Amino acid sequence: MKCLTRFSFALFFTLCFLKLSAQGTSCGGQVTGQGSPLAYPTIMIVDDSLRLQGDANGFFQINLDTDNEVNLVVSYLGFITQEVVVRLDEECSDIKIDLQTEEGSLQDIVISGNLRPVSRVNSPVPVEVYSASYFKSNPTPSLYESLQNVNGVRPQLNCNVCNTGDIHINGLEGPYTMVLIDGMPIVSGLSTVYGLTGIPQSLVDRIEVVKGPASTLYGSEAVGGLINIITKNPLQANRFAADVFATSWAEVNMDLGGRFAIGQKVDALLGVNYFNYQLPLDKNGDGFTDVSLQQRVSVFQKFRFKRNKGREFSIAGRYVYEDRWGGEMDWNKSFRGGDDVYGESIYTSRWEVLGVYQLPLREEIKLQISANGHHQNSVYGNTDYLADQSVAFGQLTWRKRLAVNELLAGFTYRMTHFDDNTVATQGIAGNQPSTIHLPGLFVQNELDINPQHSLLLGLRYDYNSVHGSILSPRINYKWLSENRKHVIRLSAGNGYRVANVFTEDHAALTGARTVEFASELRPESSWNANINLVERIYSSNGFFLSFDFTGFFTHFTNQILPDYDTDPNKIIYDNLEGYALSKGASCNIDLSTESGFSARIGGTLMDVSTFENGLRTRQILTEQFQGIWRLSYEWSRADLSLDYTGTLYGPMRLPLLGDLDDRPEYSPWWSLQNIQLTKGFGDRWEIYGGVKNLLNYRPPANSIARSFDPFDRQVQFNANGQAIATNDNPNALTFDPSYVFAPNQGIRGFLGVRVAFD
């Protein structure tokens, strides 16, 4: 058998050699990818349908007919296929073919690490890139839900009734994660729990994720990491694209997008998202809606202006309106704000503007601006929450290349005004809206010591008008092997955060618990160290395997966390007198083959705990393990693909209502799994369908404590305001919907259609 195999290979290469010899003149060259040699690229001679392969350094040799030009098609996994015309009468002994990365490839261009476009492998900061196509394997009505398929990133629900939530990175709560749109800090404060809903996904080019502090470049809130949503370039978007799907739970989601031109100088991109769910369901029998009912519309408009010498100038805006409610099954808007029937109703109105302008100077100087306004009119039972927030941001950056130094300097200013009519804004004279001014300066130098070694040094100074001066340094080191298959990154840095409790944690508003501030809150500070190891394996048959390992360690001082344990009737906010640690390791494995099979499997082990008065306490709602997978197979001839995605979560500590609470203190292991089949019809149409939550996993039916008595009319309290055990209430519970760790939406089918016109 071995002899036969060897003979077959020998015969094949002999035939290839004879065929090329018949063509006569020899030509050769090298295939690179964004300037770096590509191992074993594929070269096909179109007219002869002859397929060749380069060597480990991308070099190839072909023979050409003396009378004809030859079309070569050069391809490589993860890069855009390129067609090259080679003629004998031109110099053909040194053909240079440089391929560009395709959308979603493992070497995508990233900007989040150091505020400039750079190939992912060359970035000194580890950046994970997820293309829009990655999320099509599990379509969702919002980016918030889509991020469940990113290793180390978890959408965490905060309320069993209104189903609001935030994004955790490596176990750190949502306020530690900065969310940006096109590099602008749009999502923060009041929008922390709503900012990732209503972004038209038809306009999303990719999502970049940085895990670990990024305060040196991005300031406050970028303590745990950042998520940067990059929208499409109007020049590269489809003229029209639509994605519409519905589920067996009567959810309907529609994404529309398109580009158009205004004269010769302006290209525009328009996107619309509409989501509707109006079917109250109570499949667990607790008397409350399993999922909050929602109606949401979002419009996004982007303009890109053509200027001399390719200088950048773009302006974009977004408006979102959402009507959301959850509660007892017989609730309607006539009960809004009353104490007859319990319901949580939230009206959200939000606008955003962002833009970038490159100054017409020889130096690379850019002005970036953003502004947003967020109005929320909400009731939680008979508790009103009326909140307004306005944020204005400006950033002026200068970049200069000097020999081996890539210098970056910037000046930033951010103004945040909020008024939420809670104890958070109460002063001696009553309600006092807060206005915080935050000017800052940062400098950074990326030193390319040689092709294998680079060093990134950065320093930021901010002055908070309430809390004073804040200094944030960072250092990053990268080693890249000569063949670009092995990468080592080391990083260390400082992060800080100034908390706005109610604007970031809406769990404080729901249920019967009251909120208490033990003292005036001080800014949090953290120190972080990371190590990132990347290994890439290529083979001559198109097989690709990548290992991406990261170890992380973060030490917090003055950390602000909600205390659910001290008093079951309260949520107490205070600075931690001790310290907190977040440590762990994560690994992503990517696999792809020419046969059509691809996979991404990831897992994260983490330990997030506080240390105070000699006691170690695990942070609530933080799992010790998270796993994700995405397995795909594509039958190209049939234009058919199958996707199997899933997540796996380990136990997390949950907020209980005292020692008598009979609910488990820790959640079980649980998993959400989905399967999807997609059929294409030419280049324009796709029909897809499948099943979500295959295992029909749902949290316990008693997750909402005393759901039958949401206003605590039958609860007896002692002189200190503590619930006492009675025959009707043996566990001394009060109404509490904060015991939540998983979505309460069971198995459901879905069906959708996509269409795109270039």
What does this structure look like?
With 758 residues, the chain is mainly beta. It folds into two domains: 2-99, Sandwich (Immunoglobulin-like); 230-428 and 440-699 and 719-757, Maltoporin, Chain A (Beta Barrel). The protein is built from five helices and 45 strands. The strands form eight sheets. It has a 22-stranded antiparallel β-barrel. A hairpin with a 5-residue loop joins β34 and β35. It is globular. Residues 1-23 and 103-107 have low confidence and may be disordered.
Short key terms for the protein model shown above:
758 residues; mainly beta; Immunoglobulin-like; Maltoporin, Chain A; 22-stranded antiparallel beta barrel; five-stranded mixed beta sheet; globular; disordered N terminus
Q: Note the quaternary state here.
A: single chain
Largest sheet: 22 strands, antiparallel, barrel
Distance from N terminus to C terminus (CA atoms, Å) equals 50 Å
Quickly name the level 1 CATH class of the largest domain.
Mainly Beta
* SSE class: mainly beta
What's the CATH topology name of the largest domain?
Maltoporin, Chain A
Number of continuous helical runs: 5
The CATH architecture designation of the largest domain is Beta Barrel
- Principal-axis shape equals globular
CATH homology-level superfamily of the largest domain: TonB-dependent receptor, beta-barrel domain
Percent of sequence in beta strands: over 45%
Compute the CA-based radius of gyration: 28 Å
Helix content: under 10%
Mean of residue pLDDT? 84
Number of strands: 45
Contiguous runs where pLDDT drops below 50 for at least 5 residues: 1-23, 103-107
Tally of structural domains: 2
